[in-house]
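W.,

You were right to be curious about this one. When I first looked at the sequence I had no strong expectations either way, so I just let the prediction run and decided to look at it fresh. Below is the sequence, 490 residues in total, followed by the output.
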Amino acid sequence: MARTEQEGSVSVAGARLDAEPPLTNRPRPNGTRGRKRRKRDCPGQQVLPWSDAEHGDVLSPSPNADGGISVPRPPRLEAPTEDSDLDATAAPCRDGEARSASRLFGRNPFDPHGNRPCDGIAGDRRSELRSRVAALCPPVPGVYGMLNDQGDLVYVGKSLKLRDRLLSYFNAAASKNKGGRIIDQTKAIVWETQPSDFAAQLREQDLIRRHCPRMNVQGVPERQRPVYLCLGRKPAEMFFLSMVPPPKDTVAVEGPFFGVTRLRRVVETLNKTFGLRDCSQQTVFQFADQLSLFDETLRPGCLRLEIGTCLGPCAAACSRDAYLQRVNAAESFLDGFNDEPLVMVSDTMEQASANQQYELAASARDTLRSLRYVHNKLDVFAAARRDHSFVYAARGYDGLSVWYLIRCGVVCDVAAAPRDRTEYQAMRERLKRWQTLLQQRHQRIADERAHTVSVVASWFRKHKKELKQTFAPEAAGRRYRHLIHHSATG
């Protein structure tokens, strides 16, 4: 897309991006001047203040006559480094304000070629949006976002063909379902192309995880909402749920699963089965082998210690080593090697039925169904970890191919596929590190990208032919020569 710069402005798809941000001290509607509009917090997500500490103002887009989005341009446009993360969390917007379209999605941790431009259109009517999508949006893989009249990102999606997917929102059939509700609230659409469908799926998951758009959650039945099953929170680890996978202080994270209600039942059962606590993180924990200055008798905060469903780390009823043994047993359940919870609940159900305790038997039956759902999905993740440890060469439609290091089903690293001998020689040190990582694949390593196992498992289950594009790091030389030959003959 043509891009010109004159006097500190940029023109994209007919839209002028002004260098100076507009003033934001104009009165707000309904007498809300001087008050910050609160946005519904996403569970597990930090909410940042809207004002920009560096620029001292907000960035406000507005639709142009020719259909583009006019947004102010930040004073600095340095390329983000690997350690930086632009817009890592969604910030609440003021009425009539929105973030810059070029900074909306933030850094892409799975794009070794650098951030791709974020293009978009705006319009007050459906007909305007549809005509501009048809004229400006390319039919290539990518992700897209819907913005309302306040500039909030309300929905994120992905598609193999962006133009066709966005145009489908304007069909008559879509007006009666969720797509119609989304487009009713949409005043602007932004999109970011991706080199492949696999890259688009990773980017979509990353954006939903970080921004938690409202329409990706609201309007979706609770049984279909994604949630992650986590084991962690020191010093006394426990099972808990999170809408986004926590990056720190966890032993293991699995998911996403779907169905908040049944996962709550699963978490309660798992903590009882393995004797792990389920109390607040504010609780003071004292292990039996932990030294104390005062000789005092500690009392548990609940009845679980007395009925035998908790080891009692809050009352010095167990040692740290004894508690860690139960944590390791719980971790083996997440790895798919331990069916102790299913056996226990099944025995409870049969015993209650034999004693004609039908309400207890029915409750155990529902819990057993939820546990089987989680256990079956954990088996899928375990198969992905067992079978998917390699380098995956994903071809890009634009010639920008990407090599993904997949270790135990998790995307651990990415690199641009070498296009000549110089680039391949520069990549040899990284390939050696990749080879070392894959040799240690049986050792669990905490990775903030553990949630990508669901994308990897689903992708290779649906696209088995793509396994032909995988190779070991030591075979990268042959793959590189094949890629060069394919490019030369193509």
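Here's what jumped out at me. The first helix runs from residue 126 to 136. And, maybe more interesting for your project: The mean pLDDT is 76.

Coffee later to discuss?

I.
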